[in-house]
Amino acid sequence: MPEEKQEKKAETQKEQKPKGKEIRYIVRIATKDLDGNMPIYRALAKIKGIGIRMAKNIAIVFEKEDKIAFDSKLGLLPEELDKKLEDIVLNPEKHGIPIWSLNKQKETETGENKHLVMADLDFGLRKDLQRLNLIKSYRGLRHSWGLTVRGQRTKSTHRGKGGVVGVMKKDARIAMGDSGKKTEKKESK
What we know:
By secondary structure, the chain is mainly alpha-helical.
């Protein structure tokens, strides 16, 4: 009985592989190694700076331009189309992807719309935080101090970066060497 299941499993795996095409298990796009067994749109979401919605937009544009289904496996693409897919990932606005899905709209320095991925995204974020800190904005200062930026409460949470907030318990004070009682200093003459 178990042998029959293994034979059926082997047959279904043979059927899933297209004839004459080998699957590439690792596909490199935008300096990131992606899993070739995943559908195109899910694999693209593994690139830093591309969410699932942007990945689906890119895959649909790729489908329109090259007539390859957006949910086909990434590893089954011919190697020539990797450059085409990478061009869509790096320059989505040139291929008709809507501006609202880009992650850098109306950039402060140039005023143009961009979509940053991988190391460029990290560099851009660091540059933005430096600019906010330089102009001494509230957000910039809070970032530099390592505090919360968006109005969260800090009395009971976010204590990982700073000291303890609040009143010390009696047992903790005793353990630290303080008796907890006020001591009076005697004046010597």
